[in-house]
Amino acid sequence: MVLGISLVFFELLMGAATGFDLFMLGWSFVVAGAVYMATADWQYGLLASLIMMVTYWFFLRNTIRRSLYLFFQRIGIDCLVGKEGTVVRKGRVLVEGELWKSSSTKPIKDDARIMVTAVVNNQLEVVAL
């Protein structure tokens, strides 16, 4: 039980960095210890621990890991990557109602539709659509 509690606290201190695995392993040790204390039979404790770990590993692990996965959201100028716009004049594009400096590997005519592919030094890299 002490090992189980230690694993649970270690997981919590790490901030679920191991994807909840140490927490579940520790919790299964705690349950196994509690079942052993209640029944005075180590086999029931082992069985309870195995049932918990198999259930977690095959049925819950992927769901829990997906919910713990952090999605990074672009903010500021970086959110313009993938957006479409229009060339206003050479070196200037209009994207989402704002005028931006731009560059392209190929010349693009005025009023042409473009897509932002990257942001480099507050300048949009664009390609013609």
Compose a concise summary of this entry.
Strands 1-2-3-5-4 form a five-stranded mixed barrel.
Key attributes of the depicted protein:
alpha+beta, rod-shaped, 5-stranded mixed β-barrel, 46% helix, single chain, 2 domains, 129 residues
**Overall tally of domains:** 2
- Order of strands across the widest beta sheet? 1-2-3-5-4
Quaternary: single chain
In total, the number of strands is: 5
**Helix-strand topology string:** HHHEEEEE
Instruction: Kindly name the structural category.
Output: alpha+beta
Helix content: 40-55%
Distance between the termini: 63 Å
Strand-residue fraction?
15-25%
User: From the alpha-carbon coordinates, what is the Rg to the nearest angstrom?
Assistant: 28 Å
Tell me about the largest β-sheet. Answer: 5 strands, mixed, barrel
What does this protein look like?
With 129 residues, the chain is α+β, with helices and mostly antiparallel strands. The protein has two domains: 2-68, no CATH class; 76-128, Nucleic acid-binding proteins (OB fold (Dihydrolipoamide Acetyltransferase, E2P)). Helix content is 46%, strand content 23%. The protein has three helices and five strands; from the N terminus they run αααβββββ. The protein has helices at residues 2-14, 21-39, 42-68; strands at residues 84-89, 92-95, 98-103, 113-120, 123-128. Helix 1 packs antiparallel against helix 2 and helix 2 (21-39) packs antiparallel against helix 3 (42-68). It is rod-shaped. The termini are far apart. The relative contact order is 0.10.
